[in-house]
Structures are given as C-alpha cells and as structure tokens.
Predict the 3D structure of the following.
Amino acid sequence: MNRPDEPAADGHSRPGESSEGPYRTWPRPPVETLIGRALRLRCPRCGAGKLFRGWFTMHERCSGCGLKFERAPGYYLGSTYVNYGLTAVLLLFGYVFLHFRLGWTNQQLRVPLVTFCVAFPVLAFRHARALWLAMDCRWDPALMSSEED
Ligand SMILES: [Zn+2]
C-alpha cells in the first residue's frame, strides 16, 4: 500500500493519491531541453521514456510519466510539415552550396538531390514526430499536466 505522498505503483499520481493535489504538473522544460529530448527520441515531458518501439511505431504512453503520445486521431499530421520544412531547407542549402560554391551542374545534381528528397523524409520521420510533440509541450501547458493524459 502506498503512503499518501508516494506515487502509485505504476509511477503515476492519481486523484487522492498525492499530497501535491489530484493531478501532477511537470515543470515546463526550456526549449533547448525539449529539442535535446526530441533529438534523442525521448518523452518531451519527462525525458525518460522512449517515444518509439520500432522505426515507425510509437509507444502508446511514456514509460516514465504516462504521457499519452497519440494525442488525438491525426495528431501527427503536423509533423509532416516539420519533415517537409526540414527537407526543403536542407535541399535549398545543399543546392546552393553544391551548385554555386562547388560548381556542380543541374544535370550532376539531379540524382543526388532527388535521392535526398526521397530518403531524408523517411530517415527524419521519427525526429519530425518527436519535434512536433516537443513543440506541443512547449506551447500547450495542458500537456505538462497529468490531467490531460
Ligand atoms: Zn514521459
């Protein structure tokens, strides 16, 4: 049996089980912490739980704090914009550097840049989702409370 000031056996505080009140609130981490957790594919709220159990498959909840990763149907649609933006910016800088700095012709750039445009979004899929969730934790205070789990 838990003492009133201890979290439940599964590590989550529930109404009436904590001396802090019915719901636990996590401190909002600074932006650099959120980005670091996203790059390490960790939960943005606690930094402990892994986001993914496979290349494309996410855990349902954080093993550290219980945050529900699938917030709503279609929640991660926004991460495609993150992925698209990263791809476009890197493509632009890559093209400018290779074409104007190193003198590669458009004919020489066609295959490597098309390959990049196909491969990079697949490779960045998990990080785009992690960044999307981190941005949501930054701007939606409700995500930092177990009330919204
Ligand atoms: Zn967590």
In short: The two ends are 24 Å apart (CA to CA).
